[in-house]
């Protein structure tokens, strides 16, 4: 049985749909914090069990009978996130899973300016030390994150952000397909993957131009200082830790941490990955 954690989230839902197109429903299970949110999956024959990263016993129950487990990274940060991931790895080992697949990120590393990348790097070390066969999917930065930034720009006509750098904004749908391949095609992806990215890296200036062209509404990209960005965030009631994490993102962008364009995802998909323009255009049609 293939188990998917976080199956009611944006990426997890897409992975489950991909699995249901590839294997019988009775070979798919999900581990979710709130099982009521997965009732529709249960009705389709998917095994639904409650499992929380902070509760190792619940994970072992949710993973029972697993041949492979997809661990979609925790929404927590720092030591809490790494502990959650270790709990999931340990639970997968306890039930005898033959492979753990983990959703890492293209810039994972101990020296990244963006704090979540340190968590991913620590989790990859935990996977290596576990001895269990694993696949760490070095996902490109989600295009949906850029669309969230652009939403504010479209509403105001202005996109005031710190200096950035090119980012390989990548579609959830394409990364979900890569996860399905890792879970169903033994030998295709093993260990830490190359960056799984779209075919182009774009700055926020590029994104603002695309938004303007697609919507017909002017979006002006302006560069502000890190200090001004922090003042604006705090003035809007954002927690300081969240603002500082955002500053780390822009520092990482400036350092080129997310600028790599790699052909691996295209080779896996057998087609060109979706462009940011395509993802953004689709988001505006909803």
UniProtKB/TrEMBL annotation:
<dbReference type="InterPro" id="IPR008030">
    <property type="entry name" value="NmrA-like"/>
</dbReference>
<dbReference type="InterPro" id="IPR036291">
    <property type="entry name" value="NAD(P)-bd_dom_sf"/>
</dbReference>
<feature type="domain" description="NmrA-like">
    <location>
        <begin position="2"/>
        <end position="238"/>
    </location>
</feature>
<protein>
    <submittedName>
        <fullName>SDR family oxidoreductase</fullName>
    </submittedName>
</protein>
<dbReference type="Pfam" id="PF05368">
    <property type="entry name" value="NmrA"/>
</dbReference>
<dbReference type="InterPro" id="IPR052718">
    <property type="entry name" value="NmrA-type_oxidoreductase"/>
</dbReference>
């Amino acid at each position: 049985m293939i188990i998917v954690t976080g199956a009611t989230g944006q990426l997890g839902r897409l992975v489950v749909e991909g699995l249901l197109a590839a294997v019988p429903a009775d070979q798919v299970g999900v581990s979710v914090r709130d099982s009521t949110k997965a009732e529709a999956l249960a009705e389709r024959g998917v095994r639904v069990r409650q499992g929380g990263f902070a509760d190792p016993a619940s994970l072992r129950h949710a993973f029972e009978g697993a041949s492979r487990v997809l661990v979609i990274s925790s929404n927590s940060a720092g030591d809490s996130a790494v502990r959650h991931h270790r709990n999931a790895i340990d639970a997968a080992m306890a039930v005898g899973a033959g492979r753990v697949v983990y959703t890492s990120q293209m810039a994972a590393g101990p020296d990244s300016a963006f704090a979540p990348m340190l968590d991913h790097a620590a989790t990859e070390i935990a996977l290596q030390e576990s001895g269990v066969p694993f696949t760490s999917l070095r996902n490109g930065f989600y295009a949906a994150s850029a669309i969230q930034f652009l939403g504010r720009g479209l509403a105001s006509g202005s996109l005031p952000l710190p200096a950035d750098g090119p980012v390989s904004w990548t579609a959830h749908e394409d990364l979900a397909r890569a996860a399905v391949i890792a879970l169903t095609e033994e030998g295709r992806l093993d260990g830490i993957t190359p960056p799984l990215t779209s075919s182009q890296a774009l700055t926020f200036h590029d994104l603002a131009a695309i938004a303007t062209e697609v919507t017909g509404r002017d979006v002006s990209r302006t560069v502000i200082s890190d200090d001004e960005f922090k003042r604006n965030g705090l003035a809007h009631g954002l927690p300081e830790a969240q603002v500082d994490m955002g500053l780390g993102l822009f520092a990482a962008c400036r350092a080129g941490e997310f600028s790599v364009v790699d052909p691996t995802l295209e080779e896996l998909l057998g087609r060109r990955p979706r462009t940011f323009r395509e993802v953004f255009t689709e988001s505006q049609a909803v």
